[in-house]
From TrEMBL:
The keyword Magnesium is assigned to this record: no
Domain ABC-2 type transporter transmembrane stretches: 26-373
Molecular functions (GO terms): ABC-type transporter activity
PANTHER family assigned to the protein according to its UniProt record, in alphabetical order: INNER MEMBRANE TRANSPORT PERMEASE YHHJ (PTHR30294:SF47), MEMBRANE COMPONENT OF ABC TRANSPORTER YHHJ-RELATED (PTHR30294)
Keywords: Cell membrane, Membrane, Transmembrane, Transmembrane helix
A GO cellular-component term linked to this record: plasma membrane
Membrane topology: Multi-pass membrane protein
Segments passing through the bilayer: 23-44, 187-212, 241-262, 268-296, 308-326, 355-376
Main location, first listed in the record: membrane
Compartment(s) of residence: Cell membrane
Name of the protein in question: Membrane protein
Keyword Transmembrane assigned: yes
InterPro entries the record matches: ABC-2_transporter_component, ABC2_TM
Amino acid sequence: MRRLLENTGAVLRRELGRLAHQPMYFVLMLLLPAASFAFFALLFNEGAIRNVPVAVLDEDHTALSRKVTQMIDDTPTALVSYGVQSMDEGERLMREGRIMAIVQIPAFFEKDILSNRQTHIENYISGTNITVNGLLSKDIQTAVTTFSAGIQLQLLMKQGLTERQAMAQLMPVRFDRHVLFNPHINYGYYLSPSFMPMMLMIFTVMATIFAIGTELKYGTSREWLATGGDSVAAALAGKTLPITAAMFLMSLVMLVVIFKIVGTPLNGSLGIILAGTLLFVLAYQSIAVMIVALLANLRLSLSIGGGYSVLAFTFSGLTFPIMAMWEPMQWVSRIFPFTFYTDIFVDQMLRGAPAVYSLPDLGCLLLFVVLPLLCLPRLKRVATEEKFWGRL
């Protein structure tokens, strides 16, 4: 064990010297992660979708039609930016991307209401953005429903009912909705803790592949291995330790940005999140080692590593639930450590789940960490045989 530590220390000193003379390490491990964290913090500064522009085609021009327009404008999501004179004008604005919805209030709107005749309001929403579509539909429908309920309430009270009796008749069954864990529907609360770790993951993979791949590219891998006393375990540990330390340091910066700047609540255990973050970094370093050991090609390894990393977000279940995926795709989602890390983050950050519920996810991350043990013989071979050297 002592000799292993001495060999690891020798490789570590060699690697620190290489880091000082390779600006790309500084870019991959410090500059780009910090820039990406700042970018996403600014991107999700608003937190929730607000003031989406809509157009209103008011064909009635009465007090009640203006009241409906005002109620739609008062919703959190919709902003009445245009008062159009025809559907053709509204369609043109929508095709130009200047509005996301058109609300049409028909002629004789107020007259029909005062005559106790049924009328209608039509709403045309662009389906190009599913999130905006859902929020606009909900808020506009709520505004119109509230307006309609107010009209019905006044009519019932004019018939001699008290306000309490009128409300009971108008709404015999009341539906109470309680949004748990993220009641403000703040997108920053779940997108920041997903996009920022994704950037951390990408740069971890790229830096690790670059560190080992350049040894093969420039034919210095035998020297690297010899520095570690021909122990591939010591050589790999000394090579990856600086990257582990740098990326874990950047992960701490990431957590400060998420919890202090974005303002994401922390309802669970910070210790579990820190342990999961360290295993997350180690897991993706392990995958990067396996990729470069199997391919022995710097350019191809960087391409495969980048593609694998980016796919993780698709299968994480953050935007499309894993339980709703086709069953084979549910199994595919398990080959990404990001899936288990986001489970830990959501459980401990928003849900405030007991720490025991995150232990299985921590165990899965630990399984990814031991992957290099399977490819150490292959890594030693590509590091010592010249036919694997010099590839781009």
